[in-house]
Structures are given as structure tokens and as C-alpha cells.
Design brief:
two-stranded antiparallel ribbon, 7 helices, alpha+beta
Length: 173
């Protein structure tokens, strides 16, 4: 993705605007002659292939599935069948609503909580939105140490509380 500043306006090229970022990070406005009335925003460039790698290597696949590969304790993250775009900030918000359940399950299953960056959330959102990249995902992508760890129980039986994710699938897109 390339961003050009054109007289105070930013032009995004390459990746569709709706999939530019999974999270926005506000950064300092700087000093000197810069316009301090407008916050500067850093937008990660999402990479669906990297998201595919992260989905398996970070352990998302233990609780979530893509194309039927993975666990079913959390919602499946299959790309929308109608090709509808996934709104990246809604994707991040959906993750946030499930944070309690996810961190409990990570601590229980892995013995630690997964560390994830804004760039990695952008990559995961891109993977969730890409039917072409998801079509290449298979059991071979799961790290050997995680094979057999997939959870098939619902989160309710594993953590005993609601993750706060009562949003519909549509709301996350």
C-alpha cells in the first residue's frame, strides 16, 4: 500500500479503503510548523498471506476455523461467501468483545496470553476477508506442536462466562 500526501489529503492506493487497517493507532501530532489540529494516524498495510501464517502460528486455529480446519470453541472466520468486505475496525472490535474468553482460553491452553500487534490484527482481518488466501489454508499450516489442540467445545463450557460477543456476523463486516 502506498500513501501520498496531496495538499493535506491522503490518497491510498493498492488496497481497498475498507481493508486498509484492522486497528487505528493515534500518534503524536508532532511539533513545529505541522498542522496540529488534525491527528496523525498510522494505518497498517494488511497482508492476507501473513494473516494466514499468523492464524496458525499465533494459535487462533485452536479455537477458530477456516474452511472447516481448526477448532469450534470460537466463531468460524471464513471469508464472506458473497464477497462482502470485512470492515477492519469492526473486526478489531469483535476481537475486543471476545477478549475475556480468548485470554482465559489462551492461558488455559497455551499457558500464556498471545501478544498481538496492530499490524498483525490488520493481517488477520485481511486473511478473514480473502477467500483466495483462505482456499490455500489446510491442516499442513498448523504448527506440529498445536496439532490435536483444537477445541470443539463452545466457549461457554470452557470459561463459564460470556465473552461479550453478542454482535451478529454482519456487524463485524
Amino acid at each position: 500500500m502506498r500513501m501520498d500526501n496531496l495538499g493535506g489529503r491522503t490518497r491510498f492506493s493498492g488496497i481497498a479503503r475498507g481493508a486498509l487497517a484492522a486497528a487505528l493507532m493515534l500518534v503524536g501530532t508532532g511539533a513545529g510548523a505541522q498542522d496540529t489540529s488534525t491527528p496523525r494516524i498510522v494505518l497498517p498495510a494488511p497482508d492476507a498471506e501473513r494473516g494466514r501464517f499468523l492464524f496458525a502460528s499465533k494459535g487462533c486455529v485452536v479455537c477458530h476455523s477456516v474452511n472447516g480446519v481448526g477448532g469450534s470453541a470460537g466463531p468460524a472466520l471464513d471469508a464472506p461467501p458473497d464477497g462482502a468486505p470485512i470492515e477492519p475496525l469492526a473486526f478489531a472490535a469483535r476481537m475486543w468483545r471476545g477478549a475475556v474468553a480468548m485470554t482465559v482460553l489462551q492461558s488455559t491452553e497455551f499457558g500464556y496470553q498471545i501478544d498481538i500487534t496492530g499490524d498483525e490484527i490488520a493481517d488477520l482481518a485481511a486473511f478473514a476477508a480473502s477467500p483466495a488466501v483462505q482456499a490455500t489454508f489446510s491442516e499442513r499450516d498448523i504448527p506440529e506442536v498445536m496439532k490435536g489442540w483444537t477445541l470443539d467445545e463452545g466457549w461457554e463450557s470452557l470459561v463459564g462466562e460470556s465473552p461479550g460477543d453478542d454482535a451478529s456476523e454482519e456487524e463485524a463486516r
